[in-house]
Amino acid sequence: MYRLALEAFGEMENYGYAPNAFARNAVLDILFRTGRAGEAMEFLRSTRSPNFLTFNIAIRYLCGLKDYAGVRDVLRSVRGFGFRPNVGTFLVVMDFLCKTGRLKESLQVLGFMVVVGERPSVEIWTVLIDGFGRLGRVDFAVELLERMVECGSRPNVVTYTSLIKGFIEAGKLDRALDILDVMISNGCEPDLVLYNVLIDGLCKARRYSDGFRVFLSLKEKNVKPDSYTVSIVLSAFCSSGKITLFPELVSGINVPLDLVMCNTLVNVFCKAGFPSMAVKFYDVMVDMGFTPDCYSYAGLLESLLRSGRIDEAIKVYRGILVSGSCCTDAHVHTVMVDGLIKRGELHRAIKMFRNAVLEKYHVDVASFTVAIHGLFKCRRFEEAYSLFNQMKQEGLNPNNYTYNVMLNGSRIAKDVSAAAELLKDMDNEGVDLDSISSNAIVGLLFRTRRVHSAFHVFMAMLNLGFKPSEASCVLLYNGLHLLPVEDQEDFHVMLRSYTDSIYKESVDPSLPDSVVCRLISSASSMSESEEDSQLLQICL
Q: Residue 25 pLDDT more than 60?
């Protein structure tokens, strides 16, 4: 139909008709709609008598295309033709700028609005506050809120929600709750969206009791939770370990079931220690007419495995592959392999995984990492290294967790040369060394009787803000007597100072340092004294 419209427009001049602004606007819309933005802009420039709608069409499409230069040029043209953008146009532009992180430009547009005599609406202030909040500039977002009130605009629940969410995401939960108090004192009542933001923020901050209390208060406030609310609460319930709250939380759920909600319930029943109930609910879900998706199958398989119904889980898994329902989703394979390994069925797990790879089913880095971890646990080191290399040959890039599994496996295998190669690989791929990998290196050095180097790595970890594990500290304490006498006291004081401090701290920073990767990776080719000399340079 678009083609016919363009052909009709082309024939107008042949019949002596001059296309008016309405016809040209229709063509402009078609060109943008069919992905011909370049032609559309040329067509716009050739339009001698555009009207306000002409520019509005262009601005809306260019914002959708994230073409800032194009939006800027069209706004200039609007002024050149004597038109003034209205609040709706400014809102579209402001929303585009804030969502693409162009905060400086958004303030320039706000100034432009004031210059042309257009008063910013509540929606425009809200978009601005949301934009600055998203990027963590919450203090400036508060200034915008104050300016908004000074200009005579009254913040609504959407405005406050944007600001509160910004503070929560910035890790300033108490400030967010202060703003909530201000909002309520100003006569603005929270809605479900804001309650969802609060519950999610409280639970992510591990303030589960507060989050659950807000959820249970919804009923008395006549606010009906939706499936998203319930998903937040039930996911938090799994993490909190507050099993006794389960009946009370479930009694507060009164929302229409959809597939997402059903999948969440299957997962919650399983994670909360009721895998048999999860399997029963899965059957109920199917009887209700829901068609299971990949997440449904993953929840069912995990529940069967946790219930000890291994043969049944394998049968269901094979049925999924035969049906083709979810054989393209890597998570299904990962859940199956991980579950079998945890229940001591390594041989069946690896056989199943290799078959998935052979049949070209979609397996990802997580799937490979789970299988590699299982092989290391059973001390099948050569197979683990081989599978790691196969993963890279498949074009999958190892992530930080994969490298940590490999380094820990090298520690178990006492394979310094393999660890050195892995560290070089991490450095080349730009994967940062973290606390977990550093602890693995300490353990490896101890297991290969390179005690002095292990202590220097420990010192480097402290300087870089890493957190040595309890196991590493035990090894270091036990190895103090193996150090030269002149070093024992200094390292003992340092170790004691650290172990005393960990009882007061709960933060586990992981700071990158590729230099450490490169230095430690040379351990296999250095003598003990050379290692000590080089590692000492890190600490200095």
A: yes
Look at residue 349 in the predicted model and tell me its pLDDT: 92
In Å, how far are 35, 74, 78 from 62, measured between CA atoms?
Answer: 11, 9, 14
Comparing 438 with 341, the larger pLDDT belongs to 341
pLDDT in tens, 408-434: 899 899 888 888 888 888 888 888 777
Residue with tokens 């609005």: 113
Nearest to 389 by CA among 425, 353, 358: 425
Q: Which two tokens stand for residue 82?
A: 């004597």
What's the rounded Cα separation, in Å, for the pair 6 and 277? 61
State how far the alpha carbon of 426 is from the alpha carbons of 201, 397, 469, 512, in Å: 34, 11, 21, 11
**Alpha carbon distance 78, 54 (integer Å):** 9
Question: Tokens 């716009």 sit at which residue?
Answer: 44
User: HEC profile for 112-130?
Assistant: HHHHCCCCCCHHHHHHHHH
- The C-alpha atoms of residue 525 and residue 519 are separated, in whole angstroms, by 11
Cα separation values, 455 from 277, 414, 437, 472, Å: 50, 18, 15, 10
Amino acid at 12: M
> How far is it, in rounded angstroms, from Cα 91 to Cα 128?
10
CB atoms within 10 A of CB 148: 20
Give the whole-angstrom CA distance, residue 54 versus residue 318: 58
Give ∠ CA 35-38-44 in degrees, rounded to 5.
105
Q: How far apart are CA 170 and CA 190, in angstroms?
A: 21
State both tokens at 157. Answer: 């629940």
The span from the first CA to the last CA of the chain, in angstroms, equals 72
Q: Is 483 helix (H, G, I), strand (E, B) or coil?
A: coil
Burial of 437 (C-beta count, 10 Å sphere; 0-12/13-18/19+): buried
Q: What is the 3-state secondary structure (H, E, C) of 50-118?
A: CCHHHHHHHHHHHHHCCCHHHHHHHHHHHHHCCCCCCHHHHHHHHHHHHHCCCHHHHHHHHHHHHHCCC
List, in order, residues 6 or more apart from 415 with CB less than 8 Å away: 381
Pick from 194, 200, 233: which is nearest to 216 by CA?
Answer: 233
- pLDDT tens, position by position, 208-224: 889 888 988 888 888 88
Tokens of 491: 């390292």
DSSP per position, 520-535 = HHTGGGS-HHHHHHHH
3-state secondary structure of 309: coil
Contact 445, 430 (CB under 8 A): no
- The Cα–Cα gap between 115 and 95 comes to 19
Distance CA 276, CA 269 (A): 8
Q: How far is CA 440 from the centre of its chain?
A: 26
pLDDT at 511 over 50: no
Domains and CATH numbers, the chain: 1-83 (1.25.40), 398-540 (no CATH)
| Tokens 């003992």 found at | 492
Q: Given the structure tokens 């220097």, which residue do they identify?
A: 456
Q: Which residues contact 122 (CB under 8 A, 6 or more apart)?
A: 148, 153, 154, 155, 156, 159
